[in-house]
Amino acid sequence: MAKIAFIQEELRDRFGVMLLSACLGEHGHERDVFVAEKSHDLVSEVKAFKPDILAFSTMTAGVPFALKTMRELKEATGAMTLMGGPHATFYPEIIGEKGIDAVCVGEGEGAIVDLANAIDRKESIYEIKNLWVKDRENPEKIYRNELRERTDINALPMFDRDLYFNKYKELAEAPTKKIFIAKGCPFDCSYCFNHSLKEMYKGKGKYLQFYTVDRVLDEIRFINEKWGMKWLQIITDTVNVDKSWFMEFMRRYKEEFNIKYICNVRIDRIDEEIVQMMKESGCDRVNYGIEHGDSEIRKNVLKRDMTDEEIIRGGELFTKYGMRVQTANIIGVPHETVETAMSTVRLNRKVKPDIAQVFILQPYPKTQIYEYSKNAGFLAPDYIHSVSGTGFQLSFDGSENKMQLKLEDEKKLVRLFYLFNFFVQHSWTDRIHKIILAVPFLRLYKMIYMYPIVKQHFKYGKGVREKLEVLKKFFCNILKG
Ligand code: B12
Ligand code: SF4
Fold first, then answer.
1. Ligand 2 centre distance from Cα of residue 323 (Å)
2. Ligand 2: which of 183, 187, 292 to mutate, judged by most atoms within 8 Å of the beta carbon?
3. 8, 15, 403: which to mutate for ligand 1, most atoms within 8 A of CB?
4. Segment 211-243, tens digit of pLDDT
C-alpha cells in the first residue's frame, strides 16, 4: 500500500485533508500529517515515515511555504510531490516550478486515491483525471488531464478527524469543533473563487450540494461523544441559501443538542423566522459579509447584489434577538479612497456588530477581481509572483497586511485597516477621522486593532498556555513596529 504524508505550515484541522485521508483509508493506504509549526525537525520526521507521496493542500498565501518545503522534503525522501487545494486549482501552471511533480485541479478525493493505487501497483500515473503531471524524464512535458464529475457529497466517507486529533492533542481538546455541511455557493462575488469553480464544473454534476440533515447530526453526535465540544462551528459558505434545509437542521439540532453554535449567513437571505429559530436552537454568534459600504462598488466591482436596506434590515434582526455578530469587510478594492472605505465603516455602524472584521483585498489569480484590477491598472504587471500577504486577522502578522492594489490613499488606507473596528465602535471618530488617518502612529493602531482579538482569545481560548502565547504574539507584533 502507498504511504501519503500531508504537510502543512499551521496547526489547523483542514477538511480537504481529512476528506482525502478518509478516502485513502478506505483503500488501505497509510497516512500521516506533519505540521511544520509543531515540528522540531520536519525533514527527519517525514523521512522516518518513508512516504511515497508528499501532499500539500495549498491556498495562494501558502505557496512560498509549500514550494520551499516540497524541495527540501523531496530531496530528503525521494518521494513525489503533489499540490492540491485552491491555488493548484486556479493556477495549475505552478507545476512549472522546480520541486512540484503533480498538481490536482478541483476535487482531489478520486485523484489522490487513483494516484496512490497506481503507485502501489506500479502503473502509469500520467492519465489520472484532475491531475497535471510532470514527465519524469522530460520535466518540460506536462500531462494535463481533464476533470472528472463532481462527487456526490453524501456518498463520501466521514472526515478523518483521527488523522489530526490522535497526533495533535490541542485540536482534539479544542473547545470549538468544526463541521462542514455543504459545498458550492450560488452567488458570484468577484473576489471569491466560487465563480471560476462553478464555470470549471459546468456540465459535470450538481454544483451546490448539502449533506443530508441526518448525516450532519450523526457527525455532530460522533464528534461530541468521541472528543466533546463546548461550541460548534458550522463551516460552509452560506448556511441559509437553502432555507428549508437550515430550518429542518435547526429544529432537529435544538431537540437533541444543547451546544452553542457559530455560523456564516448571507445577510440578504435572512428573515425573522430564520433568526428566531437560530436564537432558539443555540446560535451564539453569527458572521456575515457586508464587504463594502459603497453600493456602486459593492454591486459593480465586488458583484454583491444586495442593497444597504437589506443589510440593515438583516442586521437589525440579529440585534433584536440579542445575538453576537461579526461582520466581514474588505478594504483596498479598486477605486478605493478613504471616503469610500469610510462608507463601509458607516454601514457597519448601522448594524452594530460586536466585531467588524476587515481584510485587505487579495486579488487571487483567476478571480474576476484579479482580471478587473489588472485591466484597470490597479496591479503591477508582475503581481502574480508577488502575492504574499494573507490579510488574515488572526495570523497576528500585521507586517503582512499591506495593500495589494496601487491606490492613491494607500498609506491612509493601511491605517484605516488597523483602526476599522475601532472606528465602527466609536462614532465620534467620524468627525476627526481625517486628522487621525493623517498621523502615522502605526504601532498604536496595531495595538488598537489587536485588542479585541486578544480579548476574544482570553474569553474563549483554552488554558493558560494558549493565553500566554496570544500575549506573546501581541507584544512581538507591536515591537516589530
Ligand atoms: C473553511 C475555510 C477557511 C477556514 C479553514 C478552517 C479549517 N479548519 O479548514 C479558515 C477560516 C481558517 C480560513 C482561512 C482563510 N481562508 Co479560507 N476558506 C474556507 C472555505 C470556506 C472552505 C474550505 C473547506 O474546508 N472546504 C471543504 C473541503 C472538503 O474542500 P477543499 O478544501 O476545497 O478541498 C478539496 C479540493 O480543494 C482538493 N484539495 C484540497 N487540498 C488538497 C491537497 C491535495 C494533495 C489534493 C490532491 C487535493 C486537495 O480536494 C479536496 C476535496 O475535494 C473556502 C471556500 C470553499 N468553499 O472551499 C475558503 C478559501 C479556501 N479560503 C480562502 C482564503 C483566501 C482564506 C484566507 C487567506 C482568508 C483571509 N484573508 O484571512 C485565510 C487563510 C488562512 C491561512 N493562513 O491558511 C480562499 C482561498 C483562495 C486562494 N486562492 O488561496 C477560499 C477558496 C475562499 C475564497 N475567498 O475564494 N478559510
Ligand atoms: S457568497 Fe461567499 S462563498 Fe458565495 S460567492 Fe460570495 S464570497 Fe463566495
1. 23
2. 187
3. 15
4. 999 999 999 999 999 999 999 999 987 888 999
432 lies in the same domain as 352: yes
Within-domain flag for 453: no
What residues make up the domain containing 404?
173-442
Q: Which ligand is nearest to the CA of 188?
A: 2
Kindly state whether residues 119 and 209 are assigned to the same domain.
no
Same-domain check for residues 36 and 73: yes
Q: What is the pLDDT of residues 406-448, one digit of tens each?
A: 999 999 999 999 999 999 999 999 999 999 999 998 889 988 9
What is the DSSP-derived secondary structure letter of residue 101? Answer: -
Q: Are residues 14 and 115 in the same domain?
A: yes
User: 179 and 85: one domain?
Assistant: no
pLDDT tens digits along 183-196? 999 999 999 989 99
Is 190 domain-assigned?
yes
Instruction: Say whether both 245 and 392 belong to one domain.
Output: yes
| b (16+ CB within 10 A) / e for 314-334 | bbebbeebebebbbbbbbbbb
64 and 202 inside one domain: no
CATH number of the domain encompassing residue 82? 3.40.50.280
Nearest to 165 by CA among 61, 284, 18, 294: 18
| Residue nearest ligand 2's atom 8 by CA | 192
Task: Tell which atom from ligand 2 comes closest to the C-alpha of 193.
Answer: 8
Tally of domains in the chain: 2
Residues having CB within 6 Å of any atom of ligand 2? 185, 187-189, 192, 194, 237-238, 266
Q: Which residues touch 297 (CB under 8 Å, ≥6 apart)?
A: 333, 334, 335, 336, 340
DSSP, collapsed to helix, strand or coil, labels residue 10 as coil
Q: Relative to the CA of 390, which ligand 1 atom is closest? A: 68
Ranges 124-138, 320-334, 358-372: which has the least confidence? 358-372
Phi-psi region of 334 (alpha: psi -120 to 50; beta: other; left: phi over 0): beta
Q: Reply yes or no on whether the pLDDT at 9 is more than 80.
A: yes
Q: Whose CA is nearest to atom 3 of ligand 2?
A: 237
Closest residue by CA, ligand 1 atom 53: 107
What is the rounded distance in angstroms from the CA atom of residue 23 to the CA atom of residue 33?
A: 15
Indicate whether 21 and 92 sit together in one domain: yes
